[in-house]
Please model this.
Amino acid sequence: MEFSLLQKFGAALLISAWLVWGSNIVADILVPVPEAARVAEAPAATPAAAQPAELPEEPQEIGPLLAAASADAGERVYNRCKACHTIEQGGQHRVGPNLWDIVGAPKAAKDGFSYSAALAGMAGEWTYENLDHFLANPKGYVEGTKMSFAGLRKASDRAAVILYLRDHAENPPPLP
Ligand code: HEC
Model:
């Protein structure tokens, strides 16, 4: 049987179209579209109302917030850290390092804990302000940190837990 050039060309076109279509389906199965992309495709319902609730309150002047905070409230907030941290003196490292005496301590300096390169590479101490920024948005403050914690949205929660950390420190810097 002889095929004309046109017939061959047509068949080749059909086959390649089929291949593209087929591989698309296979790709869809193998690589599910991430949730974020789906959401982005969907028409935004009430973006103005929905968004701010997700964003952390901007770190503000920490002094007045600390003055208004209570360590009791901080202990309750600290429940959200417990899965990964201990706080008592000599406590073990868990997913995260022991947090005894962290206020005023150099960053990433707890013996025997294996920090991310990102945090290990950061200079300076955990001042009240630094802690506030870090706890508002860990991944924003230390890009590449392995602390997989979304952050504390409320400035008052952050101040309370920082006060609680301060209560578990040997020689914390004076309150700002
Ligand atoms: C899902 C586990 C997890 C939770 C929850 C978590 N952390 Fe962490 N945290 C980590 C890890 C892991 C690190 C080490 C980060 C790195 O090396 O990048 C860390 C590091 C830290 C550091 C820096 C320690 C240092 O030695 O420099 C502080 C401070 C801290 N966390 C405070 C908190 C507080 C306060 C909370 C609760 C509000 C909390 N973390 C919740 C896992 C967690």
In short: The CA atoms of residues 25 and 73 lie 52 Å apart. Confidence is low (pLDDT under 50) at residues 42-52. Residues 80-81, 83-85, 95-97, 99, 102, 107-108, 110, 115-116, 118-119, 126, 131, 135, 142, 145-149, 152, 161 surround heme C (CB under 6 Å).
